[in-house]
Write a structure and sequence with these properties.
Blueprint lengths: L1 H27 L12 H25 L3 H22 L6 H33 L1
Helix pairs in contact: 1-2, 1-3, 2-3, 2-4, 3-4
Length: 130
């Protein structure tokens, strides 16, 4: 049950963080609009905070699940890849091709790494209390 809740929490963490960063970036850079073409530096910034949101989602999944955190991060990453694939395919013409390719390639490994970091935190905590 904890695995399911962890994956669910991580799944909702990613878009919440990503939409919050989109809003903040649009406030800082008024020319940025998610429905208009963006490239160059804007695409790089969007890629960075998008990757951070996936990392945080994997971390949340690992923290809540507590056991088999890498497997739970992998499940989250595969679900995220499915949804990200649909999104990027739909918005393919709104940003450079390299942005889409890198974003899709990073979803699964970054999610697994975030869950792995949460597992390392659990291990350090267990060693400290022993």
């Amino acid at each position: 049950m904890r695995s399911f809740l962890g994956i669910l929490a991580g799944f909702f963490t990613v878009p919440i963080v990503n939409l919050s960063c989109n809003y903040a970036f649009q406030t800082i850079h008024p020319a940025f609009n998610a429905d208009a073409y963006f490239g160059g530096g804007a695409a790089l910034i969007v890629l960075i905070y998008g990757t951070f949101s996936v990392l945080l989602g994997g971390y949340v999944t690992g923290i809540i699940a507590r056991h088999r955190y890498v497997m739970n991060g992998l499940i989250l990453g595969c679900l995220g890849l499915l949804f990200a694939g649909v999104y990027h395919f739909k918005h393919w013409n709104l940003s450079p091709v390299w942005f889409h390719i890198i974003a899709l390639l990073l979803v699964v490994p970054v999610s697994v790494y975030g869950a792995h970091l949460a597992g390392k935190r659990h291990e350090r905590k267990a060693l400290a209390t022993a």
